[in-house]
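Appendix B. One record, verbatim.
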Amino acid sequence: MSELKYKRILLKVSGEALLGSQQFGIDPEPVHHIALEIQKALNLGVQLAVVVGGGNIFRGMKNSSKLGMDQASGDYIGMLATVMNAVALQSEFKKIGVDCRVQSAIDIDKIAEPYIRHRAIRHLEKNRVVIFAAGTGNPFFTTDTAAALRASEIGADVMLMAKNGVDGVYNDDPRTNPQATKYDKIRYDDIIVKGLKVMDLSSCALCKQNNIPITVFDFNLKDSLIKILNNEEIGTLVTN
């Protein structure tokens, strides 16, 4: 445990990571992959919490405008989507023998515990994975911001931003611009000033305020969490 680079981590997983080859919904294969990668990290003795997005089911701002509803209503639907993903991930953890709790920022006690900071920390100390669902519980905030908030609240050593097929922060979208340049290290302020769209800017500002480093990496890379914990330089490190 003492040799690990980080001891308590907050892992942000996008809802799109659960899509797999589908255009919509939850694919069992990537869910299983995510659960196994997290299990490997747990076996090293790390404490791990997860925030999962809901973009595979519903995107608040994008979908609400298409449906003619206000953004707040769309964001609430998006929160419910994150609860669905959290329960699916919890079920996969149960299959592979990993103890897990889902805590929701909105009251949904038949499905998940309410979010209580000290209870979440206690779960982590008992080597349970904690999945934080329903974002911050408020509209107009992304799950990126929810991840930065929860990382701050539980005293995480790092926030890991898992991407799909993108291995770090670039000066442009590498999927559309093959000439895009990757940053191995970058400052919080550079992301904010340059408007790099790797994460929500408010989440970056919150991590800067609480001095929580961010690692942006490709979750499709095998043993990516293990490599980060063993201080291998993968992805992009965002710090002061």
